[in-house]
Amino acid sequence: MLSRELQTSDDLLERCRKALADYLTMFIPQPWKEPLDKIRLILQMNGQIDWEALKGHLLLFFEEKKLSDDRVECLARVERLADSLRELCGKVSPVEWHQTIDAIIHAAHFRASKEALMTRRLKMSEQDHPQEE
């Protein structure tokens, strides 16, 4: 029974990491530190988290940056992120919540950094070797 709970917990943590990383990669090639810091502040406030307000904030930040990515795709990513975090919030204690959110944020930041590096390398490669038409 305990191993099943741990497996579910690991799956949920991975879903949270992936959802946050997916949201952050929408900001590439622009920096994503500001949205990440604001997400951390909202998620680590004392008291109840307003999940609808979190979704609205995430969408507003996307719109303020006037990103070229599809708004509908952003909405889907915001929904996945908020849903996975809400589920996690219901399964961990307040102390575990703060530690877990930190770990998720660090993992998502790493993944977004890796994606940005790969994107940059791909663009550099395309510039070095333009395709002939």
Radius of gyration: 17 Å
Query: What does the overall shape look like?
Result: globular
What ranges have pLDDT less than 50 throughout 5 or more consecutive residues? none
User: What class do helices, strands and sheet pairing give?
Assistant: mainly alpha
The number of helical runs is 5
Helix share bin: over 70%
Strand content: under 5%
Overall strand count: 0
Order of helical and strand elements: HHHHH
Sheet with most strands: none
What does this structure look like?
With about 130 residues, the chain is mainly α. It has a domain at about 35-115. Helix content is about 75%, strand content about 0%. It contains five helices and no strands. The chain has helices at about 1-25, 35-45, 50-65, 70-90, 95-130. Helix 1 (about 1-25) packs antiparallel against helix 4 (about 70-90). The chain starts with a helix and ends in a 5-residue tail after the last helix. About 20% of the residues are buried. The mean pLDDT is about 85.
Summed up, what is this model?
The relative contact order is 0.16. It is globular and about 55 Å long.
Label this structure with key terms.
133 residues, mainly alpha
Write the layout of secondary structure elements.
Elements: H1 2-25, H2 33-43, H3 51-64, H4 71-89, H5 94-128
Helix pairs in contact: 1-4, 1-5, 2-5, 3-4
